[in-house]
Amino acid sequence: IYRAAIFDLDGVLADTARLHLKAWHQLAQELKRPWAEDTGERLKGLERMASLEVILGEESDRFSEKEKIDLASRKNSYYQKLIRSLSPKDLLPGAGELLAWLNEKQIPIALASASKNAQAVLQALEISHYFSTIADPEQSAPKPCPDIFLAAAQGLQVEPELCVAFEDAAAGVAAIKAAKGMTAVGVGSENSLRKADFIVGSLSEFVPKDFFLSAIH
Ligand code: B16
Ligand code: MG
């Protein structure tokens, strides 16, 4: 029985993975980089500079650090333009219902997203008020390091082994599994999420009353 929930954002709560992908694709085209079929899967959950390395591939060495920072911020400007059109209808299936259920049962909720745009996305989706704490990705080593999930648990003041965390990316599941006994729920296609303790196709398949002890008795 668990006492708190920790969520990844892109690909778990919000249908933004496709927007990240679109922005990277635009940059890749401008750089005339080839676009492999599995690029989307490989980019999931990676922080911005690590994602850029995936896009640059073997041409990475041809760019200076300064040029890479400029390329990453160019991608970010494309992404920020895309997220301006987000609204509550871009919540993924079951996300709004699960957050509302947890909130009603007074089970604390944290965010553990690698995205520096997370606050803007939460606001656009109108779900900011559900979160007791938002772990700061700038203060944590990137996933698959467990840091951001541990920071989220600490922010909630709940032991990691009493937290369930939700992830759509292999790197994120690895981060949860390294977080001192935290339980991982993989959201999405089984293949990339095999290391999770539980796997659901979407959050609408997750049955919260089987996992959480309500703070209200
Ligand atoms: P930003 P998550 C991750 O968010 C995304 O999955 C990943 O595609 C993105 O590159 C990363 O955030 C950084 O985002 O460029 O906005 O800082 O899945 O950890 O919620
Ligand atoms: Mg994600």
SSE blueprint and pairings:
Blueprint lengths: L3 E4 L9 H14 L8 H5 L4 H9 L8 H19 L11 H10 L4 E3 L6 H8 L7 E2 L12 H10 L6 E5 L2 H8 L5 E5 L10 E3 L17
Parallel strand pairs: 1-2, 1-4, 2-3, 4-5, 5-6
Helix pairs in contact: 1-4
The structure holds 1,6-di-O-phosphono-beta-D-glucopyranose (B16) and magnesium ion.
Protein name: Beta-phosphoglucomutase
Enzyme class: isomerase
GO molecular function, one term: beta-phosphoglucomutase activity
Structure report:
- Belongs to the HAD-like hydrolase superfamily. CbbY/CbbZ/Gph/YieH family.
- InterPro entries: B-phosphoglucomutase_hydrolase, Beta-PGM, HAD-like_sf, HAD-SF_hydro_IA, HAD_sf, PGP-like_dom2.
- It comes from Microbulbifer variabilis.
- With 217 residues, the chain is α/β, with parallel strands linked by helices.
- The chain is built from eight helices and six strands; from the N terminus they run βαααααβαβαβαββ.
- It has helices at 17-30, 39-43, 48-56, 65-83, 95-104, 118-125, 147-156, 170-177; strands at 4-7, 109-111, 133-134, 163-167, 183-187, 198-200.
- A six-stranded parallel sheet has the order 3-2-1-4-5-6, with helices on both faces.
- Strand 2 (109-111), helix 6 (118-125) and strand 3 (133-134) form a beta-alpha-beta unit.
- Helix 1 crosses helix 4.
- The chain is globular and about 55 Å long.
- The protein starts with a strand and ends in a 17-residue tail after the last strand.
- The mean pLDDT is 96.
